[in-house]
Amino acid sequence: MSEARERDREATKARLLQSVEALIREEGFGALGINALAKRAGTDKVLIYRYFGGLAGLLSAYAEEGDFWWHVDDILAEPLPGPDEADGLSRCLGVIFARHAAFLRAHAVALEVIAWEIAQRNELTEALESVRESRSQEMMRRLAARFDLDVREFLASVGPLFALLGAAANYLAARGRRLRIFNGIDLQSDEGWRTLERSAARMIAGVASGAFSTYSTQ
Amino acid sequence: MSEARERDREATKARLLQSVEALIREEGFGALGINALAKRAGTDKVLIYRYFGGLAGLLSAYAEEGDFWWHVDDILAEPLPGPDEADGLSRCLGVIFARHAAFLRAHAVALEVIAWEIAQRNELTEALESVRESRSQEMMRRLAARFDLDVREFLASVGPLFALLGAAANYLAARGRRLRIFNGIDLQSDEGWRTLERSAARMIAGVASGAFSTYSTQ
DNA sequence: TTGACATGTCACCATCAGGTGACATATTAA
DNA sequence: TTAATATGTCACCTGATGGTGACATGTCAA
Prior knowledge:
2 copies of one chain form a homodimer.
Chain A: H1 9-27, H2 34-41, H3 45-52, H4 55-65, H5 72-75, H6 88-106, H7 108-119, H8 123-146, H9 151-176, E1 181-182, E2 185-186, H10 190-210
Antiparallel strand pairs in A: 1-2
Helix pairs in contact in A: 1-2, 1-4, 2-3, 3-4, 4-8, 6-9, 6-10, 7-9
Chain B binds a DNA duplex through residues 2, 4-5, 7-9, 12, 33-36, 43-47, 49-50, 54-55.
């Protein structure tokens, strides 16, 4: 009867971690539960308690090793406008916005993470959040270095801009999973997102024209 | 024993509707359930089935009569920059952004609605969504009329801008409920939001400088 | 007064959740 | 070989959920 599954702790742990990813992608965070995870992994839920100490432990293990968010190297990959080019920083920010948006649209798990971070706050969302935040900070630091700007002042001037555009991309991409139209924009079409990118680029340029140097405050 | 509660259908229905609001505000959407609502209203869940046809019916009744979102009159209340003033439209959009953001920060239920619309899709979020969307559309139409612009072209030029800024405000306000900092911005302080409003105003101006008239396409 | 209906109460059901204890068996060290 | 331990299976518990049927009693028209 019982097929005497192979005894391999590491393989079982790996299957459980993969189940976290698969469940989030296919059914969303709402479906994440001890029972569902065990079933999906084809194992017994008691092993989750034994190997990970419970659901929270499994989820934070996933957060640490999971590949659910972009890497700084990818978001800043060449070719990328540099400090020697005209409007280098503005165009650079535009490219980053576009890459960020493209990544989101291509990664269902990332969108689920964003949606769930807003709606709920628990051990997993906190762990995921901290990974995301540290990557963003790293990206900003490297960008400041690229343009030879003081990090503090760079954050002060570009921070609000990134906050607005990043927030917009997150919201629209997450929303676009299930709702096609927002303010007349088709969130599920390439054309809709190109429109958004053009607007974002113009908005960036608008801020840049006013102030962007290291000695801008207001 | 049983206190023989007064028999008043309308009062019971009203208590149930108030429970929806109270539960969302105090415990979030996750707590919305037949049992929790009945308990909160101090009544029996079977009455929800009888009077509203079930949870979905109660929730959509709330969506129709609930006061969970801004009214167009409020968001466009005077004083508001008009077509005769310099940069009238740009400044008008800036004011609307600020009012939208201020409303969100002051209304916990609205933030819950936004968060839940992103994370889940069900009868209630669809009903709430449709109310929100229709108010936005109405606001845009009245704005076009105020500046004597063709609605279609107005939507094409201002639509992406509103989409980006509205999305950003929604995301940041919803996120700010539980997470204080985003990209160095304090989402729970007036100062943080003033910074965002200044950036938004500059971004709007940047788009306006390039194209804003009725005959702009790209 | 009587009978129909509206309002409200209660008990119960199946299902799912997270969680735990008891057990079977493979592996490995003594 | 034997005994301890690691791995995995199974049955069961408590509690909450959505949902329904049976019942008690107030209200109101005939």
